Amino acid sequence: MRQCVIILLMLIGITPSFATLSKKKSVTMEAMWRLIQDQQKEIEALKEKVNGSTDNHPSGTLEVPSKSATTAMTSSDHLSSDGPASKEANPSKVPDKSTKAQGAGKSDAERKTDILANEVEKLKTRLLIPDKREYKVEYGLGPAASEVYRVNRGLSIGGYGEWFYTNYSQGVKSTFDDARAVIYVGYKFNDWILMNSEFEFEHGSTGEGSEQKGEVSNEFAYLDFLLNPKSNVRTGLLLVPMGFINEIHEGPTFHGNRRPTVEQVIIPTTWREMGAGIWGQLAEGLQYRMYGLNGLNAAGFTSAGISEGRQNGTYALAQDFAFTGRLDYYMPFVPGLQVGASSWVGNSGQDNEYAGSKVNALTQLYEGHIQWRYKGFEMRALGAVGSIGNAAQLSLAKKETIGSQNYGWYTEFAYDVMPFLLTDSTQYLAPFFRYEAYNTLAKVPTGFTNYDGLYDQWIFQGGLTYKPITNVAVKLDYQNFNSAARPLPDQFNLGVAFMY
Question: pLDDT (tens digit, 9 = 90+) per residue, 110-152?
Fold first, then answer.
């Protein structure tokens, strides 16, 4: 019975620690590691006692449990004390051959210790599996897109989606759109190299015949080399680090069903190009990203802006390159306050001819932003100005006006009123208001029209955002569109967004 008593003592020593640990809502990795080390020391100490008992035993060995007892110990997730005890009533009983085979080369005490160690490993694994996921912005990416940075090793999966109903004014037909379904796939190879990617399915289907078609796109795909907090390397198909939405565009992270118009027209979204760069944190709260990327293609520029000049990693012309950078400061002395700026500078001619000659088409875009979230209050503001070189020659070749200068800005306010309605609720309900103004033809080349101010537009938008949980949002909003040339259809939007 001696070895049974020893095993029971080991169980008594191990069980309370894990039982106490399981009652806690959260366990740090450091605490878990300390516990494992303590239990290992106990196992080693008890192992020595078992070996000592074996030396003092009259026969020189301890009785080995029968095959059924051994099977019971190894096949169950919870150790059982009645199995071995029931098989040791006869001290002179010889163990069966299968047990001898399993224990070949090891003493009985060592084999029993191994069984207990395996059970401890099972418990360790269970306790290390997180019971919930964190949703927070990391390394310039949205909450769901950041998941790969929170795993120790191997595969990570995330994603988001949104769909909404739109009712238009001025006789335009209403629509119901499965706007996008996105899957994030990441893989952490080791402590300092990882891959992250986003695959997006837009508008439900790629379509057939003459019907409207959706798209399937690789929104980003890059490798990160995590060297140190101040300087890391990123390469691949990269998101251009400008504005709020281009990098962080999961539906529950912004108000309104549709992304702000300024961050679709003046700062294209989703804007990604091929290249490489560095990123990191220079000091507490001070973050930066700097990339060298293939330039835009001026062949896609229109009166509506530079958006169609994006190449998106599809056989991207790389005769001309561009440089983009961003700096953000999360002020530690003002909780929730973020200020920052970003830029894009590079030629867009890509060695093409326009109206009989090649042009540089130097494209510049500069943006500044501020965001403050304090308790239930939220404020966000952004402004951007841009210019396009050789606009006259581009306009002549394309037979439409390409603006030599453009601008856009918006400001937004929201407040979470749920604490006033349900004091103890963790849900979220925020009315919001946004005002936007932009002009893609703020200045045009001499001799070309600005289409009577058709692209000089401003938008009033108001609505509600309701989140029953952090990663699901139900949105309702109304957009009033205006232009200097003529009235534009207003929109009423109702939809759902989620991330995981």
Answer: 777 777 777 766 655 544 444 456 678 888 899 999 999 999 9
Q: What is the CATH number of the domain that holds 154?
A: 2.40.160.10
Cis omega (within 30 of 0) on the bond before 61? no
Residues 155 and 90 in one domain: no
Last residue of a domain, one of 128, 159, 192: 128
Inside any domain, residue 323: yes
484 pLDDT more than 70: yes
pLDDT tens, position by position, 349-360 = 999 999 999 999
Residue 439 inside a domain? The answer is yes
Q: Would you say residue 389 has pLDDT above 60?
A: yes
**Torsion-angle region of 139 (φ positive above 0: left; ψ -120 to 50: alpha; else: beta):** left
Domains in the chain: how many in total?
2
- The one-letter code for the residue type at 132 is K
Same domain, 308 and 387: yes
Domain that holds residue 403: 147-499
Instruction: Check whether residue 151 and residue 123 sit in a common domain.
Output: no
What pLDDT does residue 90 have? 42
Q: Which residue has the higher pLDDT, 87 or 165?
A: 165
